[in-house]
Design brief:
It is built from five helices and four strands. The chain is an alpha+beta fold. It has one domain.
Length: 137
């Protein structure tokens, strides 16, 4: 598993990102979700999803008041699937931030936010975006 903590200064937002996640890390991620205030049905659904260990999945939970998120992409079957899961969860994350700051979903601010997130994640995940590199690891 790859861990990354990203601080987005412009929005005073912290993202706790986890990539290539397996069931082994369920407790760690559940602890982080609990610390962010995740509870009830949302917490139960997250735990079930993490414990199932399905490939090509993920989750994104945000505490809007604290401006903090947990961002998870599970292990994937291919580089293309990783890109798909990453993009899917990024859409959730950027929509959470956009909602707090009343950003237009079709506007430039959201597009720049998306680009900033990808640029910050890329050094940690670039090998997951290439099938040849994935085979070497």
């Amino acid at each position: 598993m790859i861990r990354q903590k990203i601080y987005i200064k412009e929005y005073d937002w912290v993202v706790h990102a986890y990539f290539a996640v397996t069931t082994y890390y369920t407790d760690e991620i559940m602890d982080k979700l609990w610390l962010l205030g995740c509870e009830g049905e949302t917490m139960e659904l997250a735990q079930k999803n993490l414990e199932k260990g399905d490939l090509n999945t993920g989750l994104c939970y945000s505490n809007y008041r604290r401006r903090e998120s947990v961002f998870v992409v599970a292990k994937t079957t291919s580089a293309a699937q990783f890109a798909n899961s990453l993009h899917h969860e990024l859409v959730h994350l950027q929509s959470h931030i956009a909602q707090v700051y009343f950003l237009q979903p079709t506007g430039e601010d959201v597009a720049y936010l998306s680009g900033e997130l990808i640029m910050r994640m890329y050094p940690k995940i670039k090998h997951l975006l290439c099938d040849c590199c994935r085979k070497e690891k």
